[in-house]
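Predict the 3D structure for this chain.
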Amino acid sequence: MLSTHFKFTAQGETGLDKRADFKLNVTDQGTTLIDYGPYTIGKVPNEHVSETKKLVLELLSEVTSREEDGEMSRLLARLERVKRELHDELLVIILRRIVPGRCRYCPL
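Done. Predicted structure below.
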């Protein structure tokens, strides 16, 4: 959940909605299953539910203020450039049916 939120915010998107509701399902073993929006946080002891909810909201808020946010943005932009370059090169190979360039083993 946090990694998805981190990736979205690093790409300049909104990420997870911080207003999403927590869904609490109390189990028979003295634990509560916590869901946040479409994500399952996990099972926690009943006495730690409020702490866990508070921690999740704090972590979601702190993502954009971390120094790794800028680095992640740069890495994601570089990844997109590399994907485009690979796509273009593969397209040339597929359409020409031959790898461009010279090779000492090729008769061409």
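DSSP finds three helices and three strands in the chain.
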